[in-house]
Structure formats: structure tokens, C-alpha cells
């Protein structure tokens, strides 16, 4: 009887260990190795919304100017890249940096193709706003029944 309970306990213990490993795997995805507080990625956190005939992207890019950013769109593939330099004043000793430095690139596959000729991009208060109109072929069409 003890053997069976022990076997079950070990089985659940192994399953819990596997679950924790999988949770950590997804939590650490796209993060550089090393000390987290010291090597946070420079890649912007991004939200994607859909409203009517448009997709909207909001990407956090604090401290970056428009010349520091590159936005490319082809079909439904969007790429935002740029470079974030250190903002540490010269002569200062750094004890902690949470905002990453260096070049970054984020790419997204949007749910539908975008009309690249009508894309609008604005940068305000450290947030990059992209309005991405869906391509005519991607918009729903009403079919008349004869």
C-alpha cells in the first residue's frame, strides 16, 4: 500500500516539476541570459489592437526619437527596429539599469495584409502609435444575392 501512494506522490512531484520548468520556459522567452535586472531587453513592449478596418500598434519606446526608429511593413509582416543608447550621465556610476540598451528588432505577423501606402505613424510621450489600414483584399465584402 505504501508503495502505491509513494509512486503516486513521485508521479505528481515529477508533474509539478515539469509544470514549473514549462512556466519558467515561457516566462524567460526572449529574455537574455544573466541577471534579469541588469540585462533587460531593449525591445519595446507592444500592444496590437483591431478596430474596424484598421490595426493599431502601440509600442513603448521611452527616450527614443523618431530618427532612432525604423518601421517596415510588407503585406501582413511588420518590423519595428531601432537602437537605444545608454542614458547614464557621463561620470556617473551605474548601480542598476532596468531599461535595456542596444539595438532591437520586433516583428509581427498581423492577422491580415495592410495597405502600406496608408500607414500612419506618430511618436508621442514615448509611445509609437501605428495605424495600419487593412488592404482592400483583406476587408470583408458584402455579396449581393441574385
Notes on the protein architecture:
By secondary structure, this protein is α+β, with helices and mostly antiparallel strands. 18% of the residues lie in helices and 32% in strands. It has one helix spanning 2-27, and strands spanning 46-51, 54-60, 69-74, 77-84, 102-109, 120-124, 127-133. The strands form 2 sheets. The chain has a 4-stranded antiparallel β-sheet with strand order 1-2-7-6, with no helix packed on it. Strands 3-4-5 form a 3-stranded antiparallel β-sheet, with no helix packed on it. Strand 3 and strand 4 (77-84) form a beta hairpin. It is flat and about 70 Å long. The chain starts with a helix and ends in a 13-residue tail after the last strand. The model is unreliable at 33-40 (pLDDT under 50).
Relevant terms:
146 residues; alpha+beta; 3-stranded antiparallel beta sheet; 1 helix; 32% strand; flat
Relative helix content: 10-25%
User: What count of helical segments does DSSP give?
Assistant: 1
Helix-strand string: HEEEEEEE
Average pLDDT: 83
Structural category is alpha+beta
Shape: flat
* CA distance, first residue to last residue: 74 Å
Can you summarize this structure?
The protein is of the alpha+beta class. It has one helix at 2-27; strands at residues 46-51, 54-60, 69-74, 77-84, 102-109, 120-124, 127-133.
Amino acid at each position: 500500500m505504501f508503495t502505491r501512494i509513494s509512486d503516486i506522490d513521485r508521479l505528481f512531484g515529477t508533474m509539478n516539476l515539469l509544470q514549473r520548468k514549462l512556466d519558467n520556459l515561457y516566462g524567460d522567452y526572449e529574455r537574455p541570459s544573466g541577471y534579469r535586472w541588469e540585462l533587460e531587453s531593449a525591445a519595446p513592449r507592444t500592444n496590437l489592437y483591431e478596430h474596424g478596418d484598421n490595426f493599431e500598434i502601440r509600442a513603448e519606446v521611452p527616450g527614443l526619437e523618431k530618427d532612432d526608429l525604423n518601421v517596415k511593413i510588407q503585406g501582413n509582416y511588420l518590423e519595428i527596429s531601432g537602437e537605444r543608447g545608454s542614458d547614464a550621465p557621463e561620470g556617473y556610476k551605474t548601480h542598476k539599469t532596468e531599461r535595456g540598451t542596444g539595438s532591437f528588432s520586433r516583428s509581427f505577423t498581423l492577422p491580415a495584409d495592410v495597405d502600406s501606402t496608408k500607414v500612419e505613424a506618430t511618436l508621442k510621450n514615448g509611445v509609437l502609435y501605428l495605424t495600419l489600414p487593412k488592404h482592400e483584399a483583406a476587408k470583408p465584402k458584402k455579396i449581393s444575392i441574385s
